[in-house]
């Protein structure tokens, strides 16, 4: 049976590439790109069977993990989750329900969960997301008197490899070959220090008083970022500003996160750049360059929107020591700044 005949399968085409999603019940879940692959069919069957099981509405024991998941999904806490977070919870809690749903919620042990987590040692991010969803589920259960304790309380997250910042040469190589929308995406991320989810939502009417206002999806933090002169020049050269968002597809529609991520990765590979370069690395690049320009942790946080000094200090440590030393000596030689309101950075 061809992939196009599968129920609830959504097929989209953009920039010459075809993307598939399972769309049902108000949710759109991305599927692997190749519909002829076993990976695609396995992912489709798992998602479809999960929906079908819910539809069949089997008898569920009121003290089971499945019942706890159902109660959580009906709660005000779940309803208040942001769409991106909710979709991640749906994915992970469906895994939990499939594997552990029939068991009593009070009987779930730390050992069982750690053994399950160990099966994802090659994908620590997935393991962390899965454990976080279960921990959140049990915190809800404790608040509602459905369970007595959280079996994951105090368990540390697995360490995840960090995305490295881009070098100057890598940025120039990308710019030399990437299509215009991807060059604009790079500029918006590099010169504002924002995450991919915030970059794709930036609107023309958010540009005010020489800067752009952003309410970060992940934290809800509101930041106003002065327009870097190179970004300001690039935006001024765009004549067609009919789209609501600054970054728009050829049809004038906003990019979806997965779509932009795939397009950006394709442009990176076509430019002959290493596979360890990712979009999120541009946020780190911005923070490192701010540090190298001599910005304080508070100044870095004012642009990137990080809430704690710890992350800003982390980027400062990754900055080039020689550049930092030169910036520090310049301040030493100049003494107290004559213009304390001088813009930072100039990168």
Structure description:
With 347 residues, the chain is mainly α. It folds into two domains: 3-143, no CATH class; 168-334, hpI Integrase, Chain A (Orthogonal Bundle). It contains 15 helices and six strands. The chain has helices at residues 38-56, 65-73, 76-79, 83-100, 110-117, 124-143, 168-177, 180-192, 196-199, 229-236, 257-270, 281-292, 297-304, 309-318, 321-334; strands at residues 9-14, 17-24, 27-30, 207-208, 211-215, 222-226. Helix 12 (281-292) packs across helix 14 (309-318). The radius of gyration is 23 Å and the shape is globular.
How are the SSEs ordered, and which strands pair?
Blueprint: E1 9-14, E2 17-24, E3 27-30, H1 38-56, H2 65-73, H3 76-79, H4 83-100, H5 110-117, H6 124-143, H7 168-177, H8 180-192, H9 196-199, E4 207-208, E5 211-215, E6 222-226, H10 229-236, H11 257-270, H12 281-292, H13 297-304, H14 309-318, H15 321-334
Characteristics of this structure?
3-stranded antiparallel β-sheet, mainly alpha, 347 residues, 49% helix, hpI Integrase, Chain A, single chain, 2 domains
**How many domains make up the coordinates?**
2
What's the overall average pLDDT, rounded? Answer: 85
- End-to-end distance: 54 Å
CATH class of the largest domain: Mainly Alpha
- Total strands: 6
CATH architectural name of the largest domain: Orthogonal Bundle
Range of helix content? 40-55%
Structural class: mainly alpha
> What do we call the CATH topology of the largest domain?
hpI Integrase, Chain A
* Shape estimate: globular
CATH superfamily grouping of the largest domain: Intergrase catalytic core
Largest sheet: 3 strands, antiparallel
Low-pLDDT regions: none
Strand sequence of the main sheet, in spatial order?
1-2-3
Number of helices: 15
Strand content: 5-15%
């Amino acid at each position: 049976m061809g992939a196009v005949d599968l129920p609830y399968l959504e097929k989209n085409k953009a920039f010459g590439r075809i993307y598939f999603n399972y769309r049902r019940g108000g949710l759109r879940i991305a599927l692997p790109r190749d519909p002829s692959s076993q990976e695609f069919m396995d992912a489709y069957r798992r998602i479809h069977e999960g929906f079908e099981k819910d539809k069949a509405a089997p008898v569920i024991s009121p003290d089971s993990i499945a019942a706890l998941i159902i109660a959580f999904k009906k709660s005000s806490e779940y309803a208040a989750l942001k769409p991106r977070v909710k979709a991640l919870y749906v994915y992970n809690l469906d895994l939990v329900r499939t594997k552990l749903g029939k068991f009593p919620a009070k009987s779930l042990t730390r050992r069982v969960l750690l053994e399950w987590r160990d099966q994802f040692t090659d994908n620590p991010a997935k393991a962390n997301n899965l454990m976080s969803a279960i921990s959140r589920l049990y915190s809800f259960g404790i608040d509602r008197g459905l369970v007595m304790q959280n079996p994951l309380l105090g368990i540390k997250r697995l360490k995840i490899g960090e995305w490295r910042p881009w070098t100057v040469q890598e940025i120039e190589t990308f710019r030399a070959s990437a299509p215009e929308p991807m060059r604009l995406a790079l500029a918006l991320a590099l010169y504002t220090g924002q995450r991919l989810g915030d970059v794709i939502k930036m609107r023309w009417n958010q540009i005010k008083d020489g800067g752009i206002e952003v309410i970060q999806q992940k934290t809800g933090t509101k930041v106003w970022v002065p327009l870097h002169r190179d970004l300001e020049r690039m935006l001024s050269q765009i004549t067609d500003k009919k789209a609501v968002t600054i970054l728009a597809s050829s049809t004038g529609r906003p990019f979806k996160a997965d779509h932009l991520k795939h397009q950006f990765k394709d442009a990176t590979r076509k430019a002959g750049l290493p596979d360890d370069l990712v979009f999120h690395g541009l946020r780190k690049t911005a923070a490192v360059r701010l540090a190298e320009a001599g910005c304080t942790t508070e100044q870095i946080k004012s642009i990137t929107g990080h809430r704690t000094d710890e992350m800003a200090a982390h980027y400062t440590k990754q900055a080039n020591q020689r550049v930092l030393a030169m910036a520090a000596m310049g301040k030493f030689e100049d003494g107290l700044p004559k213009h304390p309101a001088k813009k930072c950075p100039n990168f």
